[in-house]
Amino acid sequence: MTARSPDGPTQLHGDLHCRSGGPFAGPPGAGRHARPKDYAKTLLVNERGDPLRAAQLLPQTNYVFHYPFEATPVFLLDLGKPAAPQALSTESKDAYNWPGGVGRNRSIVAFSAICAHQLVYPTKDVSFISFRKTRAQKGVHDNVIHCCAEHSQYDPAKGARVLSGPARQPLCAVLLQHDAKADTLTAYATLGGELFDAFFRKYEMKLSLEVGAKAKHAVSGQAVVRELEKFCRNSVQC
Ligand code: FES
Question: Would you call 103 exposed, middle or buried from its count of C-beta atoms within 10 A (0-12, 13-18, 19+)?
Answer without folding.
Answer: buried
